[in-house]
Amino acid sequence: MMVTLTVQDPGQRADQFLARSLDNLTRSAAQKLLEGGHVLREGKALKKNDRLNPGDELAVLIPDPAPVEILPQDIPLDIVYEDGDVIVVNKPVGMVVHPAPGHPDGTLVNALMHHCGESLSGINGELRPGIVHRIDRDTSGLIIAAKNDAAHLALAQQLQDHSLYREYETVVIGGMKEDQGTVDLPIARHPTDRKKMAVNHYNGRRAVTHWTVLNRYRGYTHLQCRLETGRTHQIRVHLAQTGHPVLGDPVYGGVRKGFPELVGQCLHARRLSFVHPSTGERLNLECPLPDYFTATLTRCQRL
Which end of the chain has fewer CB atoms within 10 angstroms, the N or the C? Predict the structure, then answer.
């Protein structure tokens, strides 16, 4: 499948541009495309260190995915919406989205492969079939997968232009002074701990989180968060940066005793809205707060 991209800003490296422009591809996947000669400028293959100029048009050939070697597993799915193009699932806490070192099976991808068979898109290669965006293992809620490459590209474009709406609810430590606000801080991989992300003004990617207070408790605040961008750990990093980490978050300083129902961060992807890739109609989907979240709110009310 061929994708055409137009460069707007000067001086970008080819691999960096691809990683920023094709959110459905990881940085390593973008570099593999360049190494394989799949990215052309004026008919010539680009290398990852090549610099781009405004107005450059790149032809990106996305090769057919490698044969998938992930075992389909009959794992129950809470399906919120499904048709021939997309499937939206309410992911439980503790489920990893796709296989990775230490998590070779039991993932959402394993379950989707059993449920959907061979109808998942393959743009992300053999480790992430169908997955358009991701949420963390200990974050619950709505996640969308594409059943064909055309739907995948259309949804990835909505991620890029921010028309794919994602809304979360969370409980944070401490009392937020304002009723609403926006965190606009760039995020990159932590310089020393590769499992973490961090605010980085030098080489971070732009990240924007809008938040609104839903309820206030003694020592805690129930928030609604809307993602304008979708960086790894974005809400967790941004709220920790404000001094109000997500309750239960073991990575960014949100661990507190007295909440035994939490196995990770108290963060739920509550609402999802996108333009259907075939019909052009906007779908607005919602799932209820899970038991761990409502139990946390009840405990906060009793403090």
Answer: C
Q: Which stretches of 177-249 are DSSP H helices?
A: 234-241
Which tens digits make up the pLDDT trace of 250-300? 999 999 889 998 988 999 999 999 999 999 999 999 999 999 999 999 999
Residue 104 has pLDDT above 90, yes or no: no
pLDDT at 38: 86
CA distance 153 to 145: 11
Round the CA-based radius of gyration of the chain to a whole number and report it. 20
Instruction: Determine the straight-line distance between the first and last CA of the chain, rounded to whole angstroms.
Output: 56
Q: Which tokens is 140 given?
A: 């619950």
Q: Which residue has the tokens 């949420």?
A: 135
List 15, 23, 56, 136, catalytic entry: 136
DSSP state of 293: H
Residue 225 confidence (pLDDT)? 98
**Calpha distance 68→116 (Å, rounded):** 14
Contact yes or no for 158/228 (Cβ under 8 A): no
pLDDT exceeds cutoff 90 at 62: no
36-46 burial string, b = 16+ CB within 10 Å, else e? eebbebeeeeb
> Which residue in this structure is represented by tokens 């799932």?
287
Residue 64 exposed, middle or buried by CB count within 10 Å (0-12, 13-18, 19+) = exposed
Among 26-30, 79-83, 175-179, 181-185, the range scoring the smallest mean pLDDT is: 26-30
Q: Is 136 a catalytic residue?
A: yes
**Nearest alpha-carbon partner for 141 in 74, 72, 94, 99:** 94
